[in-house]
Design goal:
Mean pLDDT: 88
Number of helices: 1
Shape: elongated
Bound molecules: FE2/S2 (inorganic) cluster
Distance between the termini: 96 Å
Strand content: 25-35%
CATH class of the largest domain: Mainly Beta
Number of domains: 2
CATH architecture of the largest domain: 3-layer Sandwich
Length: 161
């Protein structure tokens, strides 16, 4: 159906212009999709791993916590305890199946299957197989208390300020 022969020069020019636009658009689309796929490959390849919370962290100055404090820091999964001038960081991860225990009047209790612990984290009831862990507490150079969850210490070992 070639009617090029019958086309007037203006029409031929218009057709050429359209062709150039189409060529440009298809090249643009091709390059665009190449860039997009390179980008999505990069996003896909990039590791998405999160490495959790740092195991050593500051919780605040000793004076921020009056004696008698028993403060559960849920995101850190510890309970910060102050008794006089002594501090402790007791794990709030239940030793049964890992639920978060809450401080209670007699120690700690787990809402999942009813394990109970005394003030030092010793098991007093329920299915928990072992006591709650205690973590090392120290004073950082900036005067804040530092808890190191990589260092488990003997339960009942307080840090004196
Ligand atoms: S997880 Fe705490 S009692 Fe089961």
């Amino acid at each position: 159906m070639g009617n090029h022969g019958t086309q007037k020069p203006a029409e031929q020019e218009e057709a050429g212009g359209r062709r150039r636009v189409l060529t440009f658009l298809s090249a643009f689309g091709l390059i665009g999709s190449a860039v997009l796929s390179a980008f999505s490959n990069f996003v896909f390849i990039k590791p998405r791993a999160t490495y959790g919370q740092p195991s050593r962290f500051h919780v605040g100055k000793p004076d921020d916590f009056p004696s008698g404090t028993k403060l559960a820091l849920e995101d850190r999964r510890i309970c910060l305890v102050r008794d006089g001038d002594q501090f402790a960081a007791v794990s709030t991860t239940c030793t049964h199946l890992g639920c978060i225990v809450s401080p209670s009047d007699t120690g700690y209790s787990c809402p999942c299957h009813g394990s109970r612990y005394d003030q030092d984290g010793n098991v007093t009831g329920g299915p928990a197989p072992k006591p709650l862990a205690w973590y090392k507490v120290s004073l950082a150079p900036n005067g804040e208390l530092e808890v190191d969850k990589d260092q488990e210490i003997k339960p009942g070992t307080y840090f004196n300020v």
